[in-house]
Specification:
Blueprint (H helix, E strand, L loop, with lengths): L7 H7 L6 E3 L12 H7 L7 E7 L2 E6 L14 E4 L7 H4 L13 E9 L12 E7 L4 E6 L6 E5 L2 E4 L4 E7 L4 E4 L5 E5 L3 E9 L3 H14 L23 H13 L8 H9 L16 H9 L4 E3 L5 E3 L6 E4 L2 E4 L4 H9 L2 E2 L4 H6 L1 H12 L3 E3 L1
Antiparallel strand pairs: 1-11, 2-3, 2-4, 4-5, 5-13, 6-11, 6-13, 7-10, 7-12, 8-9, 14-18, 14-19, 15-16, 16-17
This protein binds succinic acid and cobalt (II) ion.
Cobalt (II) ion binds next to loops.
Length: about 375
């Protein structure tokens, strides 16, 4: 169990998306939930995204996993980075929980890096907000101001930014946390063998949102309003696009997403889709509803698999979006919202499940899909 040693309201008011900060001893007596050999083990798996970064003759090198050997990590100056470890490692997944003071839909994933002395990925800018937790070892971090900056590929799989002046220059020790809002350049260099945990938060920009919305609209068979100009008048300047034509084009485009409610089906689906492979816990044989109740009766609780994204909107509370799919919890929103708000379902919901057949049917379906598993 990791407990944040942080005044959350002060942090949100002063730093969240405003400026980077160091939270010394953010976790008191921090103990690494994962060992370097386990990180390497994950980097051997086909479905897990990993990267090895090192230098040869002062040239940055980056290789993409899966890896079958790790000789590079026997030398100084190397880093192994593994993405979405919260999907695969139950103990490491626990590191996401302390950050649930922020909404689940904003959480991206837990990335873990293991570096040898001198290791790092170089100066770069991320498109997400991140809490970097220091585990094993010590690491020197520099963070610069959010200024317009040139970015370039230091290697095919490694984007860097130009050198920057530091506004934070710090040595992180186990349990310290560095918070970096998106867009601030930063660079970490291990002072000795070190593990870092990055809890990342998505911050979609207009291009991300518009392109995803357009993809969704293309895929859905909803009617698509066409630009019409039935009131056409003879034109003296055929090269000109008139202001009222531009206004009409603007209206046609906006009509698709005129109200916040019109965004719900798209955004719910998009934001609940996992960007990385999930470790689906499908039972060998599908459970019947009676079996689910029997398991509760025996004292089991059900845990949501790591990284599963489940959300609902305050505005349409009966709609649940789970792993990119829409489910309806009309009449049993208490269960539906519990599934999205909490990691576990325990006996506190047993009465509701016994009394409401629809609630039990939905929960049984979700267990059979491998999204919740009995522990
Ligand atoms: C790392 O852990 O090496 C990379 C973290 C980051 O800079 O985003
Ligand atoms: Co970064």
């Amino acid at each position: 169990m990791f407990e944040l040693n942080l005044d959350i309201n002060h942090f949100l008011d002063t730093y969240w998306q405003k400026k980077p900060t160091v939270i010394k001893k953010g976790f008191i007596d921090f103990e690494d939930p994962i060992m370097p050999d386990e990180i390497a083990g994950l980097a051997m798996e086909e479905e897990i995204e990993s990267r090895l970064v090192y230098k040869t003759d002062q040239q940055w090198q980056a290789e993409l996993g899966p890896f079958s050997s790790f000789e590079k990590l026997e030398n100084d100056g190397a880093s192994l980075l593994v993405q979405a470890v919260d999907h695969w490692h139950v103990e490491a997944q626990e590191l996401v929980r302390p950050f649930r003071f922020l909404p689940n839909w904003r959480i991206d994933d837990l990335m873990i890096s293991y570096s040898t002395a001198g290791g790092g990925v170089g100066p770069h800018i991320d498109n997400y907000d991140v809490f970097i937790i220091q585990g094993l070892g010590k690491r020197h971090w520099r963070v610069g101001d959010k200024l317009a900056m040139t970015e370039f590929a230091a290697h095919g799989a490694l984007k860097h930014c130009e050198p920057f002046a530091a506004i934070i220059d710090v040595e992180l020790e186990p349990g310290d946390i560095l918070y970096i809002p998106c867009g601030y350049p930063h660079e970490g260099t291990a002072l000795e063998a070190a593990i870092n945990y990055s809890v990342g938060f998505r911050a979609p920009d207009q291009n991300d949102l518009l392109s995803s919305f357009a993809d969704y609209s293309l895929d859905s068979n909803e009617p698509s309003e066409r630009y019409l100009d039935r009131e056409m008048q003879m034109r003296e300047k055929p090269g000109q696009i008139e202001t009222q034509e531009l206004n009409e084009l603007h209206r046609v485009m906006l009509a698709k997403c005129q109200t916040p409610a019109a965004l719900i089906p798209w955004f719910g689906k998009m934001i609940s889709e996992a960007k990385h492979e999930l470790d689906i816990a499908e039972p060998e044989q599908p459970h019947s509803s009676a079996e689910i109740l029997a398991l509760f009766d025996e004292g089991a609780q059900f845990t949501r698999i790591g990284g599963l994204r489940a959300v609902y909107f305050e505005r349409e509370p009966q709609l649940l979006f789970i792993n990119g799919e829409l489910f309806n919890c009309e009449g049993f929103t208490e269960l539906g919202h519990h599934l999205c708000d909490q990691d576990e379902v325990g006996s506190e919901l047993l009465e509701l499940l016994i009394e409401d057949k629809n609630a039990l049917t939905l929960f049984t379906q979700l267990v059979n899909l491998g999204y919740w598993y009995a522990t």
